[in-house]
Amino acid sequence: MSERVLVQQLQSLPDGPVSVSGWVETVRDQKKVQFVILRDETGAVQLVNPATRELPEDADDAAKAALALTETISALTTGTFLTVTGALKHDERVKLGGVEIKIAGLDVAAAALPETPIAADSGLDKRMDWRFLDLRQRRNNLIFRIQTTLEHAMRTYWIERDYIEVHSPKLMASASESNAELFEVPYFEDKTAYLAQSPQFFKQMAQVAGFGKIFEIAPAFRADPSFTSRHATEFTSIDAEISWIDSHEDVAAMQEELLATAIAAVKQKHGAEIEELFGLEVQVPTLPFPRIPLAEAREIVKSRGYEIPRTDGDLDPEGERQISAYVEETYGHQFVFITDYHPEIRAFYHMRDEETGLTKSYDLLFKGVEITTGAQREHRVDILIEQAKEKGLEPEHLEFYLDFFRYGAPPHGGFGMGLARVLMLLLGQDSIREVTYLFRGPTRLAP
Amino acid sequence: MSERVLVQQLQSLPDGPVSVSGWVETVRDQKKVQFVILRDETGAVQLVNPATRELPEDADDAAKAALALTETISALTTGTFLTVTGALKHDERVKLGGVEIKIAGLDVAAAALPETPIAADSGLDKRMDWRFLDLRQRRNNLIFRIQTTLEHAMRTYWIERDYIEVHSPKLMASASESNAELFEVPYFEDKTAYLAQSPQFFKQMAQVAGFGKIFEIAPAFRADPSFTSRHATEFTSIDAEISWIDSHEDVAAMQEELLATAIAAVKQKHGAEIEELFGLEVQVPTLPFPRIPLAEAREIVKSRGYEIPRTDGDLDPEGERQISAYVEETYGHQFVFITDYHPEIRAFYHMRDEETGLTKSYDLLFKGVEITTGAQREHRVDILIEQAKEKGLEPEHLEFYLDFFRYGAPPHGGFGMGLARVLMLLLGQDSIREVTYLFRGPTRLAP
């Protein structure tokens, strides 16, 4: 038996015997000829078999085998995985890639039940129930190839610059962000563990440990009861943290270069297919990304006729869309850093500018949606304790974190970015559910 | 002020003004001259200052500043993070890299408390209490640079071969391995979630989804009350799964090539430093790794005079050391695949050989310790259900998993490998605690 070849290799092979493996996408069982569309992880190919519908009385073994093959093909169900050997033939009349395979032998690995529980036009929730079937769609497969390329380009960017990749623990003895949204896990000796909401404390720990520059791509957990298109109870968080910065600007400069590099890698490898399957052209962002202080952003939004209802001084989702629309119109840019947030709407560990009193932090918006918060962290323990108290936090509960800063600490900062949000926006999708391998939400824990 | 330079760059710079940032490793405060050893993430350098101990009556500003600098240096505590500007001077008499910096200015970022709670010879548990200080040691820093190189080489190996990187959920509605060792998480709507013990089911899901070849590097959780040097309640699991294999041998062939590639990358980048700091030479394994069927391995162990006490037919830790010693002596190899395990000591989803009835699976031992279980999986749902029942599992509780195989499935298999075990053995360490960023065990949940 010939070695398995991938469908995408067929066009470059000469006519002759081949073996392909994949699953049945469709069967057209015509009286005189049978067609099977077989898909694998690289593409689809047409298989063809001249049907043998009945046997003459003096049928030989070959004729009997031909009848059996015809009957096997007639009985094939959509989704059945199989290996087919046969003769590859180039034929420009074949729309699907200009090749077809005349079936010689067919080996079913596992047959599918005849009724497929979802169709291409099934609703999102139904598709998520049957995610393993939903992922067989070409564009869903592409999403995770894009994710792979995006992440690898980011990791490579960092590793070429001597960053250390860390795996910080997801089981913690206390909250990493706030006590809200915390999953509790009964632990040994009647203790309670908590699932990390972010690697915040532990990536800062790498800085006081003298690691210099680190990154982590790992799950984070939020017991978040919200049902928006961009929240999940478990998500993949992309985090970086670097030492010896002068301000959050050093973090922003790294992040914009990182994103431009990663998006360029995606465009180079998948740009054509994204255009075909998602109907959009990937835009590699120019550097630097525009920066707009929050107060100015609010003024701009207001001047566009939108009155932000929230009173805490932050943008709301519509405000984010408005400022992004402004940036797109004015600078032709899909990204914008919003800077200079008031301490009231930022975490206690954000460093504050001595002159303005505003935090040395930013949010990064991409196509109107926030994908990142970045900041310089307060590394002076006395100020850090004051800021924690100001937020109503009790320093006693933060001792293990505060200890990090009592034995020396460099100035440092970093960002956290939701992988699914980036993918969702990059591919023009409505929901992170579309770009998450298996989504987890308040009412979604399976499959 | 000059831009920060890394300590490792100093040797290649000309004499002249530089700026370095790091932490104080030691201060030698002699009467006439002060020496500070400053370490950053790349190395250590000697800083020097001619001491000014008292001022003449007509002291000028420069003299006053010199006195202040001397006093600042005298007060420096070990671990204090600071930036120093000064004049770089090459001097071959300086043991530490043949350069020193005459201090011109010194800026403390955050001073350390005077008493450092751990010393280089503190016990492991104490060092873990103060892991952020422990990680400042050069060899601990190196461990995580090695980890970064090892992982990146593995990811690159896979990505060059068109694997997809997945992030499977860690919150699950049911057990992925067995009901033992399961952390429970109270979830929404009075449901209970479980922390994934492995990505087993979800990496198999990628195969029925037609992804072809996938990998994942992510945390896995075991509510395992054991206190051995190689168990943790949370660990980083390296997983791969591939379709259209003929047997577990295809998985083993991929894994051995992967490991040889990754270890070669580590040796190339860090070999000299590993030799210096860990006193061992990294051995890049030759291909193929030796393979020994389990029954034969037990015979060999017996012939070496060790009687394995366990009666289930498996090797015990001493048996693993014995067979590895045999392989090292006989083949000069640090790795060995043990194959052909009896179904009784394997998971229900391991495929069985039709002729022998043994599972199509292996364990991989590295320097006498198991680091991996690999197998071909049973993809035929009827047989899978039978095998589950045989193990006392109730198929009703596995419905979501069994469904994967009802709509078509390719033959497939994969392996799971503990990152910390590989690192521990590669670097000749006694415990995974030494090579885990922040270890988690039954009595260890902090920092």
Automatic annotation (TrEMBL), chains A, B:
UniProtKB keywords: Aminoacyl-tRNA synthetase, ATP-binding, Cytoplasm, Ligase, Nucleotide-binding, Protein biosynthesis
GO molecular-function terms, A-Z: ligase activity
Domain annotation Aminoacyl-transfer RNA synthetases class-II family profile: ranges: 144-447
UniProt cross-references to SUPFAM superfamilies, sorted A to Z: Class II aaRS and biotin synthetases, Nucleic acid-binding proteins
Aspartate, as annotated region: 200-203
CDD domains documented for this protein: Asp_Lys_Asn_RS_N
PROSITE patterns: AA_TRNA_LIGASE_II
Subcellular location: Cytoplasm
Residue sites binding L-aspartate per the record: 177, 222, 373, 377
Pfam families xrefs: tRNA-synt_2, tRNA_anti-codon
Subunit structure: Homodimer.
Annotated family: Belongs to the class-II aminoacyl-tRNA synthetase family. Type 2 subfamily.
HAMAP family on file: Asp_tRNA_synth_type2
Function (record text): Catalyzes the attachment of L-aspartate to tRNA(Asp) in a two-step reaction: L-aspartate is first activated by ATP to form Asp-AMP and then transferred to the acceptor end of tRNA(Asp).
Protein name in the entry: Aspartate--tRNA ligase
Lineage, opening ranks: Bacteria, Bacillati, Actinomycetota, Actinomycetes, Micrococcales
